Amino acid sequence: MGVEEEFLLLEPHGAVAPKAPEVVRRAGVDEQIKTEYMSYQLETATPVCTGLDELRRELSRLRLAAAAAAERSGVRLVASGAPPFPAGPMMAFNEEDRYRRLARRFPEATEAGGTCGCHVHIGVPDRELAAAVLTRIRPWLPGLLALTVNSPVTGATDTGWASHRYRTQLRWPTFRPPDVWASAEQYDREVRWHLAAGTALDESGIYFLARLSARYPTIEVRVADTGLGVADTVLLAGVVRALVATLIEDVRQRAKIVPVAAGRITERLLAVARGGTRTADEAARLLGKITPQLDANGDTGEVYAGVERLRREGTGAERQRRLWKRYGPTRDFVGALAEATAPLALRV
Questions:
Q1: pTM of the full structure
Q2: How many CB atoms lie within 10 A of CB 242?
Q3: E strands present in the chain
Q4: Which of 32, 129, 232, 255 could disulfide-pair with 227, CB 3.0 to 4.6 Å?
Q5: What angle do CA 269, 133, 262 make, to 5 degrees?
Q6: For the chain, percent of residues with pLDDT exceeding 90
Q7: So what's the pLDDT on residue 290?
Q8: What is the dihedral of CA 81, 85, 86, 88, to 10 degrees?
């Protein structure tokens, strides 16, 4: 498994800070800390990991390196699904030509480019098997979003949503659950159709909530907001790895697929993004499905403890909302988010 996390760069008072190229240079971690769509965003990418302990170390290492480089540039690294304040150059694009072409092709979706997600890659070298797993993962996507909602505040206001990021990402034509595809060829045909129709710029611009990676032999699950803390991301990765392994076994055993209409999945995703479902209920459904595979991976204790932590402390959205109620639109709010992203205690 491998994980890509997206982050915001904010001035201490909360304005977006278009300093990503400078921060990347200062970090000096080749290809593992990169610029993103907006020049106030960074993306980190872990190497391939085989265990959750290894993944935690890599996520922590990259967050700390990025946070230290950001501070040397006079800004803060913040893990939030959306910029909290409407301040600074919100339309400051990265200089890469591809991002500028995206903005020209999809101007109505440009605001969504400034939001931050977490993408979990699980190795599935057999593309036919991977395509079959995409069909079966569809009804589980709302549960994965429920574990990771982390964008309640934007425009200097509490939006009332748990994932404002999900709401804005809907402006991209391909930001939707995967379809029911009978084969990898059908999946590829769908990708080719979007490219021909102009609803995606290139294969990397296919933003299905779970997809076959354009670069790696993996299933890439893209539904999640970026995790406020490392523990949030480790929990997501542990659940996704076990879910994919469970669904692979279902395919091999020819387990019956319970049909779920695309509209029903979309309704559930919107309900989760609005904060209208109980995270505990969604987590219980997931655990009921994946616990045998968690046992096989040796991850049961880790994942169950993570779910219990969410029950006790709240999702990223709930924790962020508490900080907002405490501090409001102040430097202290930005500082608290930055501390949750890369705690000072880990930097010594």
A1: 0.97
A2: 25
A3: 2-10, 33-35, 41-45, 76-78, 117-123, 153-154, 157-158, 210-212, 218-225
A4: 232
A5: 35
A6: 89
A7: 98
A8: -100
